[in-house]
Specification:
With 209 residues, this protein is mostly helical. It has helices at 2-20, 25-40, 44-62, 70-82, 86-102, 109-124, 128-145, 151-166, 170-187, 193-208.
Length: 209
């Protein structure tokens, strides 16, 4: 399925480039979709190249601070995280937050996700206080843009629990993990993977107490 999608998207890229040139914004969209197909097929080097091309075209047309760059920036950060390049991923997520702040969108759902991802990258880098600050920001923003019982609030609290645990604050981490479980258990089907993740975090923290 993904190989068919990849082949079709490559043809579309060629057609658009012949018709409009190598820097047309339509190319950025197709290159982004091509990268997504390659990422799903676990062709990470190809996905990265496609997404870098998409970003370069967007920068040429709209500038490096345009919010349209955030999706592809997040995609490139995902590749970096999956390959253990946490410092690079952190830099990409920080770029997303800078764009959002510049556009007065630092308190949006997208900003909450960026803080959550930055917290994860910082934990992997051993920057526990940075991780904790971003995790708290993620929860605070998510609670403003989603109902308190929304599963994404539970996911944000789960991230805060992990950051607290990394900072050695196990009792606080356990309380946050318990809150996360209550929220996602009430909001999601029994077999949902987010529920299992939250339960696993709670089990791990309970074992460490």
């Amino acid at each position: 399925e993904y190989s068919d999608a990849e082949a079709q998207l490559k043809l579309a890229l060629d057609d658009i480039e012949r018709a409009y040139g190598s820097q047309h914004p339509k190319l950025a969209t197709v290159a982004y979709n091509l990268g997504a197909a390659q990422y799903e097929a676990r062709k990470l080097d190809h996905a990265k190249a496609s997404w870098e091309r998409s970003r370069a075209i967007l920068e040429v047309n709209f500038g490096a601070t345009d919010l349209r760059l955030n999706d592809v920036t997040s995609a490139l950060a995902s590749v970096a995280m999956s390959e253990g390049r946490d410092a690079e991923a952190r830099d990409e997520f920080e770029a997303i937050l800078r764009r959002l702040d510049a556009a007065d969108q630092g308190q949006t759902y997208e900003a909450a996700l960026a803080h959550s991802n930055l917290s994860m990258a910082a934990r992997h880098l051993g920057e526990v206080e940075v991780a904790l600050a971003h995790a708290r920001s993620s929860v605070e923003i998510m609670q403003r843009v989603r109902p308190l019982t929304h599963p994404e609030v539970g996911i944000a609290r789960q991230g805060l629990a992990r950051a607290l645990a990394a900072a050695g604050r196990v009792d606080e981490a356990l309380r946050e993990a318990q809150r996360a479980v209550v929220i996602v258990d009430a909001a999601l089907p029994e077999d949902h993977p987010v529920r299992e993740e939250a339960a696993e975090t709670l089990r791990d923290l309970s074992a460490d107490r």
